Write the structure tokens for this entry.
Amino acid sequence: MPRFIVSIFVLLCLISCSQSFVEKKPHQAAIATAHPLATQAGFNILEQGGNAFDAAVAITAALAVVEPAGSGLGGGGFWLLHRASDQKQIMIDGRETAPSAAHRDMYLDQHGQHNKKASLDGPLAAGIPGVPAALDHISQHYGHLTLKQALSPAIAYAKQGFKVTPHYQKLVSFRLQALNNSPAAKRIFLQDGTPPQTDTLIKQADLALTLEKIAAKGATGFYQGTVAQLLVDGAGEAGGIWTLEDLANYQIKERNTVKTHYQDYQITSAALPSSGGIVLGTILNQLELFDLSDYDINQQRHLITETMRRAYFDRSRYLGDSDFITVPEHLTAKSYAKTLASTIDKIKATSNETLHTSTSKGEDTTHFSVLDQYGNRVSATLSINYPFGSAFVVPGTGVLLNDEMDDFSAQIGAANVYGLIGNEANAIAANKRPLSSMTPTFIENEDHLMIIGTPGGSRIITMVLLAILDFIEGKNAQEIVSSPRFHHQYLPNEVQLESTGFSEQEKMAFRHFGHSIKVLDRQYGNMQIIIYDKRTRQLDAASDPRGEGLATIQNIKR
Ligand code: DON
């Protein structure tokens, strides 16, 4: 056969082989968020001709208005993007940064003890927000519509108001004292200093103006000019340390995602400064060494707990903002997982002490998942940390500030609000990003894809892990979000179980393996997932029954 015919044959084969990996478009779109109005904002934007990235901008801004306890313009987050046209996958890091005047011991009292209130309540607890910059960045670099179009549903919600729900009341009650300390927060979120009645409309006129500034000027509308001046003055008057330069210097980072291979699945997840991808990878790499199907449910849970223990131990020792520290590369290596897993006793819990010698209230934060009719995806987890963040609203801006500074280790070895301990790697430093557990994730093989994430502080990573295992087992979206959850984070040395979902016998089984268990007084998490069957083009989506969110699949009329 002439050589050029062979070459053409090889070329055609290459084209068709690579095409077999190109995913078929879903025809429909799916959105799962923690609030029905945010889901609606996303579809509104898709129907105007926007893509998943425009929808993500609209949802992020809408959640900032209608779910103020979880995220907002005064907070940060991670947006995992997958662009169908070129298969580009990237993480947009809009995590808060420590102000330039921040320093290692800033939350220690005169006795050298961590003053926990100082890193949780009021503007001193707040990092420089990343959400406004991320809205502009995602819109400019990935969207089709203008930022103004994408922000318009959120602006309307801020002006018209959203209705108080039982969930809102619960979270407001949890942060009542701190909210009462901020006159602007009290005026917006409370009624005479108490939780408002259900169905009361919460209107946010100042926030609408701030959003309009961003819509008109992009990120500059927030980080410079009158809004920036108000933020610096307002935070400063209440004990904050922000400067105009801190705001003007805030930078979004595009980071490579963390990829893990488990059986025939590829898991794409968050990179540092989130510990999510690395910890998830360390756990899955260990689990791959056991064929879980060989074990009964209780044995599986024991093995999973042991892999969690080891991965969270490493989290506490090694992880922090990779722009500031060098993180060992071996943590996600398969060979390292072998070393870790070799110390797992299949019938007995390992004591934390032997790990040393051998080798985390309240639902806040928020997650949303989007898959558009073109195959573009977004998995985004956003936070202002504790419910209602620092509970401080900067007068004249409507911006509720985060308390993400508590995610740093304020003192080596001292636990933060989620019980996580940290090391030098996560010590406070000027302009550094605090270590996060937010784990927006895609998992897929040739046939199936899941877009997943959840809030839940230190338990985020283990929730995503359990959901991944359920997905691989073939469970559907509703089953996955409804599954009972358990968690181990090395310290405290206990398996935490949700209040419901575990029988007495199952609890006994944990004890039988030598684990201490702590049955929590509540359930946790607010998972939002989308599943796509690449063969049949069927979509499935679900919003966690523990929350008040909405997952919808829709044809896009255009
Ligand atoms: O970034 C983190 O890991 C935390 N600030 C997330 C907080 C959170 O999920 C609270 N939700 N219950």
Q: What stands out?
A: The mean pLDDT is 94. DSSP finds 19 helices and 20 strands in the chain. The pocket of 6-diazenyl-5-OXO-L-norleucine is lined by residues 363-365, 383, 385, 404, 407, 436-438, 455-457, 460 (CB under 6 Å).
